[in-house]
């Protein structure tokens, strides 16, 4: 029985409906993923052909994509793999202005790809989202939900923030991309309209779009002289270029098909958003492989805001709206009054109503306690009589709670007077048994609730992103996020005698415990002398490390302190300086060997700050070396460095399976 309305539905029919719903949802998701992958691949291939190989004409590449679409679809129709209607005299009228939009989108999109770097291209492409949303509203009368609108605005806001700080102005590239944005929005909306209003289908629309624009595109490229430039291109004998050129042409057809498919099964806005998700990936890749990206913290933050907004839109769009299959509260009340609901549904309605009423009471109680100035709004919602009753109950509960606290406080005060003296003696005895590190840590410790720790983590990460020189924020982030990794480090240290000794003795490395003059006079090939030389060459001191303050566990706090105080020794044993390349390489080694999340963050975001020449050295030499050494070397924190000052540094490196980086000589 369907909610007691009198319509009987068998289990087989219900199962069939469920399968149909799942099939529809499956097609939505797969069509969106297919479009995203196609769009991602064609962007990379087009960039390789137009920029890396310096192919002279994006117009000729557009022509190649048109020809590939016509040939593939015509062949598929002859082989009866696909089907679409034959040409008719009123065909142009049916699909106009889609062919013009289709050609313009292809040409200006490729022009923008050639003229701009990948991060700039991705950032500017996000302006198509707002255009699509507005066009869907005015042409298709589709009003997006508030959640969709907020995610779109957040995405565009993140894109604006990312683009505001580091994009070099290129008038031609900007013009091409903004035209492409308008055409993309128009194409998505008109495809949805034409598909629903004609019998052409996906393949027919794509075939005739390409066919009708093939001759105009050929004439256009010939008039501008691009055909001659392409024929005189010197790389036609290069098989790698030919393969990528052909792949770009075929991927153009696949992209066109995936675009229509995604729009048909979802919406024009979904197609645009998926394209922008792809652009986020392209942006991250372009930071490393483009060679022309200049890092900016505002750009990085804006990109991440855009990513989060894109994920939010994806969730809002593709989640199953189960509430649509359930009766609303008003319908349930009517059904209950009519007596047409089965017992199970009556119980469900009553339970749901009780839970809702309890939640309303809690919300009203909090509102009346926290926002007394808004009481007139609550009265208006539920009526004066019910509001007065709830207010009396709240005041009664609050008064009872205060009296209970006062009584308990009086009794506790009497007991505390007799126990204060005993407690003071116990505290004195415990303090005498503490070691020096424990006394120092407990004296500087700042205790926090879990919620405060979450806020501190978010604040310190944001501050560290905005200003990487804030070492206090980076240290704070390491403490609030490193607990799990530190537990694993302690377990590793307990498996070796040297590590157990460190945990027991808790040695410190600072100018009060290390005799730097003694290290200076050691043999040049010893660890101690090399450590002293590292400190003097880089103008650093063992006392520059901040103390641990935000951790709860005493042992974990010491291990974090040990990591900070041995950081310069890790530089020394790896032979890495304190410049940007050296710091990023050491952070990768520490991340893999020690496992602290802060180290991974420093390695990833530190690499983004490298200049183009540094980035080339980083990708070619520093990063492969750091990953290899980090995986192969023995754990570093169980090493008792202070007892190895006189050990030969080359023998120590061999013992720890460390190979230093050998850069090629110019």
Overview of the structural elements:
It is an enzyme of class 4 (lyase). It is built from 30 helices and no strands. It has 666 residues and is mainly α. The protein has a domain of 212 residues. The N terminus is likely disordered.
Features:
single chain, 666 residues, mainly alpha, 75% helix, 0% strand, disordered N terminus
Radius of gyration: 34 Å
Proportion of residues in β-strands: under 5%
Ends: how far apart? 83 Å
| SSE order, one letter for each helix or strand | HHHHHHHHHHHHHHHHHHHHHHHHHHHHHH
Low-confidence stretches: 1-8, 320-407
Instruction: Please state the overall shape, judged from the principal axes of the Cα atoms.
Output: elongated
Pathway: Cofactor biosynthesis; ubiquinone biosynthesis
Catalytic activity: a 4-hydroxy-3-methoxy-5-(all-trans-polyprenyl)benzoate + H(+) = a 2-methoxy-6-(all-trans-polyprenyl)phenol + CO2
Keywords: Lyase, Membrane, Metal-binding, Mitochondrion, Mitochondrion inner membrane, Transmembrane, Transmembrane helix, Ubiquinone biosynthesis, Zinc
Family: Belongs to the COQ4 family.
């Amino acid at each position: 029985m369907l909610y007691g309305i009198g319509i009987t539905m068998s289990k087989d029919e219900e199962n069939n409906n469920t399968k149909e719903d799942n099939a529809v949802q499956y097609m939505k998701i797969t069509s969106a993923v297919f479009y995203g992958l196609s769009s991602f691949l064609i962007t990379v291939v087009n960039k390789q052909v137009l920029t890396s190989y310096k192919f002279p004409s994006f117009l000729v590449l557009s022509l190649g994509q048109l020809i590939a679409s016509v040939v593939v679809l015509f062949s598929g129709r002859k082989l009866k793999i696909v089907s679409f209607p034959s040409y008719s005299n009123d065909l142009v009228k049916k699909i106009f202005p889609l062919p013009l939009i289709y050609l313009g989108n292809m040409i200006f999109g490729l022009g923008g790809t050639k003229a701009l770097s990948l991060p700039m291209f991705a950032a500017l492409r996000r302006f198509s989202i707002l255009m699509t949303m507005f066009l869907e509203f005015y042409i298709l009368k589709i009003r997006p939900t508030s959640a969709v609108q907020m995610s779109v605005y957040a995405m565009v806001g993140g894109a604006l923030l990312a683009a505001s700080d580091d994009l070099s102005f290129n008038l031609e590239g900007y013009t091409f991309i903004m035209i492409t944005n308008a055409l993309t929005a128009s194409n998505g909306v008109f495809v949805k309209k034409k598909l629903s209003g004609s019998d052409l289908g996906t393949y027919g629309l794509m075939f005739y779009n390409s066919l009708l624009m093939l001759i105009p595109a050929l004439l256009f490229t010939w008039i501008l002289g691009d055909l001659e430039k392409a024929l005189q291109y010197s790389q036609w004998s290069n098989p790698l270029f030919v393969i990528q050129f052909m792949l770009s042409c075929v991927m153009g057809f696949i992209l066109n098909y995936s675009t229509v498919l995604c729009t048909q099964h979802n919406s024009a806005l979904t197609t645009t958003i998926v394209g922008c998700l792809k652009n986020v990936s392209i942006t991250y890749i372009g930071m490393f492989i483009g060679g022309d990206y200049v890092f900016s913290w505002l750009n990085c933050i804006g990109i991440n805001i855009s990513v989060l907004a894109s994920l939010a839109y994806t969730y809002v769009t593709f989640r199953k709206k189960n509430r649509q299959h359930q009766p609303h509260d008003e319908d349930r009340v009517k059904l209950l009054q009519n007596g047409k609901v089965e017992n199970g549904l009556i119980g469900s309605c009553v339970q749901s109503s009780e839970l809702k009423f309890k939640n309303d009471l809690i919300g009203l109680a909090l509102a009346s306690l926290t926002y007394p100035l808004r009481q007139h709004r609550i009265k208006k919602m539920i009526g004066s009589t019910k509001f007065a009753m709830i207010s009396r109950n709240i005041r009664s509960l609050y008064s009872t709670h205060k009296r209970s606290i006062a009584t308990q406080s009086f009794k506790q005060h009497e007991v505390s007077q007799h126990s204060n003296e005993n407690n003071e003696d116990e505290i004195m005895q415990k303090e005498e048994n503490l070691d020096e590190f424990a006394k120092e840590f407990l004296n500087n410790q700042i205790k926090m609730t879990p919620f405060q720790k979450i806020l501190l983590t978010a604040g310190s990460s944001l501050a560290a992103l905005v200003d990487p020189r804030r070492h206090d924020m980076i240290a704070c982030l390491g403490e609030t996020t490193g607990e799990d990794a530190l537990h694993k480090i302690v377990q590793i240290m307990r498996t070796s005698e040297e590590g157990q000794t460190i945990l027991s003795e808790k040695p410190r490395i600072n100018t009060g415990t290390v005799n730097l003059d003694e290290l200076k006079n050691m043999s040049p090939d010893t660890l101690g002398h090399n450590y002293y030389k590292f400190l003097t060459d880089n103008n650093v001191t063992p006392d520059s490390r901040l103390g641990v303050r935000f951790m709860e566990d005493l042992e974990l706090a010491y291990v974090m302190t040990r990591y900070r105080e041995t950081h310069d020794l890790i530089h020394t044993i790896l032979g890495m300086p304190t410049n940007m390349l050296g710091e990023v390489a050491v952070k990768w080694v520490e991340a893999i060997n020690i496992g602290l999340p802060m180290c991974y963050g420093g390695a990833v975001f530190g690499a983004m700050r490298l200049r183009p020449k540094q980035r080339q050295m980083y990708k070619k030499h520093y990063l492969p070396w750091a990953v290899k050494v980090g995986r192969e070397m023995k754990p570093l924190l169980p090493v008792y460095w202070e007892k190895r000052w006189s050990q030969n540094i080359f023998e120590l490196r061999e013992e720890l399976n460390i190979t230093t980086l050998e850069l090629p000589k110019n």
